[in-house]
Give the backbone structure.
Amino acid sequence: MVKAPSKRKFFASPGGAPFFQKRSAFLAPAAFGVLGLLIWQGAVWWLQVPQYVLPGPIAIVTAYMGDYAVLNAALLSTLTVTAAALVVSATLGVVLALAMAASSLARAAIQPWAVILQVTPVVAIAPLIILWVNQPFLALVVCATIVAFFPVLSNTAAGLAATPADLLDLFKLNGASRWQTLFLLRLPAALPYFLAGLRISGTLALVGAVVAEFVAGSGGFASGLAYRILEAGYRLEIPRMFAALVLLALAGIAIYGALGLFAHLMLRRRET
């Protein structure tokens, strides 16, 4: 006699996990966000909060639709600085990590200065960088790079130091040189660490770009979203300010997700 499939098996996905269990990771945040927006809009209506104090989601969307060309151009400017800073940070972090792995003297020379740059608030040194670097875009990239490069450096250095000892012994037994061991064994083994650091650096590059734009915007030669936030604040265009903040938040989420997907594809390709 054939048994009818149970409800548990009926709602199970091909991998064996319940059907709704996998999708809850996507549905729960979306539902929570929609609920929060509804409560926000309802509270603004119910309490009759002025828009210059706290605009509702509808006012923010309306402000964006009324000025989307300027805000999108400002977002593109900020993302350009972020992308350039991320590329420089990744390159600089890997090069310095390789130097630290190849020489203990280089490690002793580089590591303290890297830590000093990391713990120094970029908002404190951004005016000096903007003053010293006469080119606005380059100054913004330098500021964002200072914020973003340390996670790549520290994670890649940790990955290079975490190479399995048995593989190191195997390379030694086969007569591999120090540079062959570094580039053929230790660097590929550090790839997951590098990708994790790159994912962190992507969001930090955006933060660094925004901070630098805030400082540069007070001088009137920035064109990114941070400058538009300052401009909207001076004019008390609070819905427009919130629209720019929402664009920054969405950009950060997109960068983090894109770098996570890139890391997944790279690691899957390496496994195959």
Summary: The chain has one domain: 62-271. DSSP finds twelve helices and no strands in the chain.
